[in-house]
Specification:
The complex is a heterodimer of chains A (409) and B (507). Chain A is built from 11 helices and 11 strands. Chain A is α+β, with helices and mostly antiparallel strands. The two termini of chain A are 37 Å apart. With 507 residues, chain B is mainly alpha-helical. Chain B contains 25 helices and 4 strands. Chain B has a 4-stranded antiparallel β-sheet with strand order 1-2-4-3. Classes of the chains: A alpha+beta (409), B mainly alpha (507). At the A-B interface, strand 2, helix 5, helix 6, helix 10 and strand 10 of A face helix 9, strand 3, helix 20 and helix 25 of B.
């Protein structure tokens, strides 16, 4: 039986358990992570950086210090982002109808090309769909509220508005019309750090400790994009899930080819085979800016926040680590070489630091010029968090984001 | 707006004063250029052992440039001449560029990059900071000495002559260099001395020359004057003396011919993906670009299609022959085909080009296609597989194909595609470097998909019940086809979209 695509879905359609967004509890979730109705991090503390275990009040005995540090680390690891909340179809509709601010889309999108931009949607009770475009943001908003959108995505800009072909309507799909441009977008995901995360998080889990890795990555990328590439307009977005997207909005980036995007992301990508080999690429002396940046921005947190075993892997024992920490606290070092124990080479230290703390960019998101990317401001159905525009990725935590439960009650 | 530049007399892309050349002169000019590119003449000229007045020099330079232009026309019709020309012209360019004075170098750089390359000084002015000093292209002592010489009372440096010639190239123009991180990158500009960037500049020159040859190739078919000229020049290159200088590389694997059992269209699934796509493209649109025609034409020849049959093939497929009889078509537009079979001047017996040449000049599925299209193509095939185990194993290989495409490793992606199509998973097949290598391997192995799979890009005929794959029992695919039959168009459109999003950003 044919169905009018503009009609809202019938009530009964959500009853299919596979299609329902009411999901089972996450089996990987720590028993300590209580699922709260509000959904934010369990921890109430908000700091620019997770507190350093070594910054805990001094105790008379070394053992007590270690115990204290371990306890602090465990507390942070326990404060995980809640996943798979109970979100109803009605809440989604209410959010998109009453709270989704389309004016904010202009932070990342150009008004002139909006009608020719592709969108994609995962809707309650329907198949995933793409090849959609809208004359104006109000139509987009209406569509998302009618269909109770679980996930919304924005794609590239084309020469014509795109639409799925139907019997009556021989429309342009993205393959029938000319590709006109796409913002340069970078994706940082906590799960890409799985091999080196020093908390007990895996996959979609995020805690303050591993979120620090995302923050570090964002800080380094932000500076690299601004200084090395000279980009002026960057917009960081919390995806609502486990990471950030960085939209580079400078005009010239819109028409970059896949090869150019690949060159760009490869300039920043230093870790190859992130899943297995963890091969760290050597930086030549010519990359003086990148080299200096990594040392300046990562050294302190790498030494202070890494578990002892990470440094022991390259031959830095406890006492040497303590000396390094003391030197770092003095803040009078200018060269990395000053704080590294003599037995360890600069290259060894640098490689280990890059491996454990440097940005891990999902290069596919950047290179693929037709890829759909989560729409800022839309709800992430796995977490219930709303994708949020952020000014300072260094000081943002997922718990700062708005949650659909809070917004819609 | 294009920057106005005054190029040095030797630069092959500059305009000459009198570009009208009669047939008698063509031979002389062509051979002259070949001698310059390959012979002792090059060394003599480069070492400035030729003594001449300025007028003589300019006349000689004009002849050289005209010779280059004629060779470009020949190269447009002959892939091997094209490869040779691009390579040797690149070498000559490199040597002459090195020997040029700074102002000439700057003119050439302006021509090659327009406003995408500027001097270090210009960049310093633009950014308002001394780039040369910041990145140690000049040391402080040297700078102080210069300052003292220029103005004893001021810190302003008026004359920087003698300091290193630093060049800044926009990052968009050199994505390969960007990956290597061999140069300083600052505010979107790659910085290096002109000497250190020589290989980058040479590559740019070769790339532009290659593009120009392709453009001429596009104009070649159906242009009798150009066809005649290219045939003449190729004829001049065939005499033993010149041929020895050009020494074209015959690219083959020791196999230059594979007979197919039946027509190519009956063997579509075992063909390399690039050829499958070209066959589909010519079927669907009736048009291929110049080098794509060359690629498919040679392939049809080396797989056993006689010339008459191939001429008929193109006559039937092409869309630009409306109102033309077969004889007219053969005479007017069949030049490339006759040329491939050695029926034109040159009498070259073409062998199938290697993947490298195809990637440089022609059409490679994994080099020239978008990642999205590659993903879509693979997803569509996976969707036709009914057995869950087979589907699973192919999905794993599909990821490798897509990953290699992302990494711009086209040969590797092709190898995985071979495994994907043939199910050759037991041993690690070699990386594909030649279309005939692929064909030979695929022919031996055969396609083991247990379904009546449509070739790449060709939709399943849904009106014909018999043409549907018997084994489509996979629920989603079955639903899709049922949905089409039920005219539930919105639903199927959505489903198709879902298939497209194998690599969807779904976080």
């Amino acid at each position: 039986m044919s169905k009018n695509p503009n009609q809202p879905p019938e009530q009964g359609q959500v009853s299919d358990p596979d299609q329902s967004i009411r999901s089972q509890p996450d089996s990987e979730q720590s028993p300590n992570s209580q699922v709260q109705p509000s959904g934010p991090l369990a921890s109430s503390s908000k700091s620019q950086h997770p507190s350093n275990p070594m910054d805990q009040p001094q105790k008379s005995q070394q053992g007590q210090k270690t115990q204290q540090a371990k306890k602090a680390q465990t507390q942070k690891a326990d404060s995980k982002v809640k996943f798979q909340p109970e979100i109803t179809e009605e809440q989604l509709k209410t959010y998109y109808r009453d709270h989704f601010d389309t004016n904010l889309l202009w932070k990342v999108m150009d008004k002139g090309s909006f009608p020719r931009r592709e969108f994609g949607f995962d809707r309650v009770g329907h198949f995933f769909t793409r090849n959609k475009s809208f004359a104006n943001p109000s139509d987009l908003k209406e569509y998302m509220s009618i269909y109770a959108t679980k996930a919304a995505y924005a794609g590239a800009i084309y020469a014509d508005p795109v639409r799925t072909k139907t019997k009556k309507y021989n429309a342009f799909t993205i393959h029938d019309t000319e590709w006109m441009g796409r913002e340069l977008i970078f994706d940082l995901d906590a799960n890409d750090y799985d091999p080196v995360r020093q908390c007990d998080c895996k996959g979609r889990d995020v805690c303050e400790i591993c979120w620090g890795l995302i923050q570090d990555a964002a800080v380094i990328m932000d500076e690299t994009l601004r200084v090395d590439f000279g980009f002026k307009k960057l917009q960081w977005v919390f995806t609502g899930g486990r990471g950030y997207h960085c939209w580079v909005l400078d005009r010239e980036t819109l028409t970059l080819s896949q090869e150019q995007r690949s060159g760009l992301v490869n300039y920043m990508q230093l870790i190859h085979d992130p899943g297995d080999g963890q091969r760290v690429e050597k930086i030549t002396n010519s990359s003086v800016l990148l080299n200096e940046r990594i040392v300046r921005l990562l050294t302190k947190r790498f030494v202070l926040e890494s578990r002892p075993i990470v440094l022991e892997e390259i031959g830095i024992k406890k006492t040497a680590r303590a000396t390094m920490i003391r030197k770092l606290k003095e803040k009078n070092y200018k060269e990395l070489i000053d704080i590294i124990p003599r037995k360890v080479t600069y290259e060894q230290f640098f490689e280990q630091m890059v491996k454990y703390r440097y940005a891990r960019i999902d290069h596919k998101v950047t290179i693929d010029t037709r890829r759909l990317i989560r729409l800022p401001g839309s709800v992430h159905s796995h977490t219930g968090y709303v994708g949020q525009y952020i000014d300072n990725p260094e000081s943002f935590f997922p718990e700062d984001a708005k949650h659909i439960q809070d917004i819609t009650g | 707006m294009k920057t106005v530049v005054t190029l040095p007399a030797w630069f092959p892309s500059r305009k000459v004063r009198n570009s009208v050349v009669d047939e008698d002169s063509q031979k002389k000019l062509t051979k002259g250029r070949v001698l310059l590119l390959s012979g002792k003449l090059k060394q003599k000229i480069l070492k400035q052992e030729v003594f001449e007045t300025e007028e003589e020099y300019l006349k000689r330079a004009d002849r050289e440039v005209l010779g280059h232009g004629l060779l470009r026309v020949a190269a447009a019709a002959d892939m091997r001449v094209s490869s040779w020309l691009v390579e040797t012209e690149g070498d000559l360019f490199s040597e002459r560029f090195k020997a040029s004075i700074d102002t000439e170098k700057h003119e050439i750089i302006k021509y090659l990059y327009e406003d995408k390359a500027i001097s270090g000084e210009e960049l310093s002015r633009e950014l308002g900071e001394d780039i040369l000093l910041k990145f140690h292209f000049v040391n402080k002592l040297e700078l102080r000495r210069k300052r003292l010489l220029n103005s004893r009372d001021s810190n302003v440096l008026r004359d920087r002559s003698g300091l290193k010639n630093v060049l800044a190239i926009r990052y968009t123009e050199v994505p390969d260099v960007l990956k290597q991180r061999k140069f300083v990158l600052y505010q979107g500009w790659i910085l290096g001395t002109v000497e250190s960037l020589l290989s980058v500049i040479k590559k740019r020159f070769e790339h532009q020359l290659s593009d120009r040859i392709s453009q001429i190739g596009e104009q070649l078919d159906g242009n009798p004057l150009l066809e005649k000229m290219s045939a003449n020049i190729l004829g001049y290159l065939e005499d033993s003396e010149t041929k020895a200088l050009i020494n074209p590389r015959y690219e083959s694997l020791g196999i230059d011919h594979i007979e197919l059992d039946g027509s190519v269209e009956h063997n579509l699934l075992i063909l390399p993906p690039c050829l499958q796509e070209l066959i589909h493209k010519v079927n669907a649109t009736g048009y291929l670009t110049h080098w794509e025609r060359f690629q498919l034409g040679i392939f049809l020849k080396v797989t056993g299609m006689p010339i008459d049959e191939q001429l008929r093939y193109w006559y039937n497929k092409a869309v630009d022959n409306v109102g033309m009889t077969f004889e007219e078509f053969t005479n007017r537009a069949g030049y490339i085909i006759r040329h491939i079979y050695g029926m034109e001047e040159g009498k070259i017996d073409y062998t199938m080009p290697s993947c490298k040449t195809i990637q440089d000049k022609m059409y490679c599925t994994f080099k020239h296609n978008s990642i999205q299209n590659v993903t879509k193509m693979i997803s569509e095939i996976i969707d036709l597989i009914k057995k869950p185990a087979l589907k699973e194993s192919r999905t794993v290989i599909a990821r490798s194909i897509v990953a290699s495409t992302y990494q711009f490793e086209a040969n590797k992606a092709c190898k995985y595609f071979y495994s994907f199509i043939t199910g050759d998973l037991s041993s690690n097949p070699p990386v594909i470097s030649h279309p005939l290598q692929y064909l030979r391997m695929a022919k031996e192995k055969g396609v083991i998909f247990e379904l009546n799979m449509a070739p790449i890009g060709e939709p399943v005929n849904l009106d014909d019940e018999d043409s549907l794959p018997d084994e489509i029992t996979d629920t989603t695919t079955k639903k899709s086809i049922d949905a089409i039959k039920d005219k539930d168009t919105e639903k199927i459109a959505d489903k198709t979209s879902e298939q497209v999003t194998l690599e969807e950003e779904s976080r």
